[in-house]
Design goal:
Layout lengths: L1 E13 L4 E13 L3 E5 L6 H8 L7 E6 L2 E2 L9 E4 L11 H11 L4 H14 L15 H13 L5 E4 L8 H16 L3 E6 L2 H5 L4 E6 L2 E7 H8 E9 L2 H7 L9 E4 L2 E6 L5 H10 L3 E9 L2 H12 L1
Parallel strand pairs: 3-8, 3-9, 6-7, 7-8
Antiparallel strand pairs: 1-2, 1-4, 4-5, 9-10, 11-13, 11-14, 12-13
Bound molecules: adenosine-5'-triphosphate (ATP) and magnesium ion (MG).
The site of adenosine-5'-triphosphate has 13 residues, from strand 2 and helix 1.
């Protein structure tokens, strides 16, 4: 079943002088039980799409269905958890009070709410700040609280706009762990990011948005393939043999990394075996083989070229 169905949404922001097209005919589906990634560079239209899903702004055309219910119907958001792009809370409430307030809006009994809030505060390592006022929170602490606020009522669909922005490595780890667990327990998760590695290890499907349009919908395996730009083989040996190894066809020569250390970069998997064989033949010692990551921009370029 489709948890979120987006059908041909469009959004143009208009002011007196200027028109800014933010989303142009975006359609896709997030199936129930998926962790779905929404990837795109700054200004791609991710937040605009998410705001339309959440009915915070109106679409110019098309519609969004959440569990089959039109997103403009309040019932569509009954079982939804949401983290906005820049979460903000009442500054003079404490973290704990904020969560109790959130829980009360979902009709959760006080004792149950306190119990859930306690557990999540501990989980996201906010215990020391739970009784501090929000105005004393750092950016990452607000983000952690925002994530807790989005999940405290155990929603079955969770929509998060750049959930990992502002989080430190521990925060990111805790977030990923929690998302995986919630998904195992049955929640559908949809989140945006412009960082490919965040999406890579969590999502089963990814939509890539650029300039308001979907460039591609890809599976996890395709993502791994696209994000790999080749391999760097680092080896040790004498200069003469290294130069010979660099003369293999279809490689861009050999790079001296200092003293007796050299590297060959290969961009096609098909060359792998012949390079390794050649190094062995020349008695060169392989130190390491590292995959080279591709940044998001070059993935876009590759995708756009392949589309053409
Ligand atoms: N309220 C607004 N008024 C005018 N233009 C807007 C408004 N909100 C967004 N835009 C424009 O719409 C486009 C898409 O913006 P959006 O915030 O959806 O991008 P995004 O993919 O979320 O980017 P980021 O990664 O930076 O968060 C941008 O060109 C932006 O300037
Ligand atoms: Mg955004």
């Amino acid at each position: 079943m489709e948890a979120i169905k987006i059908e041909n949404i469009h959004k143009t922001f208009r002011s007196l002088k200027k028109k800014q097209k933010a989303v142009e005919g975006v359609s896709f589906c997030v199936d129930t039980g998926e962790i779905f990634g929404f990837l795109g560079p700054n200004g791609a239209g991710k937040s605009t799409t998410i705001k339309i899903i959440m009915d915070l702004i109106k679409t110019d055309e098309g519609k969004v269905l959440i569990n089959g219910i039109d997103s403009t119907d309040y019932r569509a958001r009954r079982n939804l958890g949401f983290l906005p792009e820049n979460p903000s809370f009442v500054e003079n409430l404490t973290g704990m009070e904020t969560l109790m307030f959130q829980a009360s809006m979902h009709n959760i009994q006080k004792r149950e709410a306190a119990d859930r809030a306690d557990k999540l505060i501990n989980l996201f390592e906010l215990s020391d700040s739970a009784d501090k006022q929000i105005r004393k929170y750092s950016k990452g602490m607000i983000q952690r609280l925002g994530i807790i606020a989005a999940i405290i009522h155990k929603p079955n669909i969770i929509i998060l706009d750049e959930p990992m922005s502002g989080l430190d490595p521990i925060g990111r780890y805790l977030f990923k762990k929690t998302i995986k667990r919630l998904n195992k327990e049955g929640a559908t998760i949809f989140f945006s990011s412009h960082i490919i590695s965040d999406i890579e290890d969590l999502c089963s499907n990814v939509v890539i948005l650029n300039k308001g349009k979907i460039i591609k919908t890809i599976s996890k395996d395709e993502m791994k393939y696209l994000s790999s730009a080749g391999y760097k083989i680092i080896f040790e040996g004498d200069a003469e043999s290294a130069a010979k190894a660099g003369k293999l066809s279809n490689i861009n020569g050999v790079e001296n990394l200092g003293e007796t250390l050299y590297a060959i970069t290969i961009k096609e998997a098909a060359l792998f075996a012949s390079v390794l064989e050649k190094l062995k033949e020349l008695d060169l010692k392989i130190i390491s083989i590292k995959p080279i990551g591709r940044d998001l921009e070059s993935i876009f370029i590759k995708l756009m070229r392949s589309e053409k």
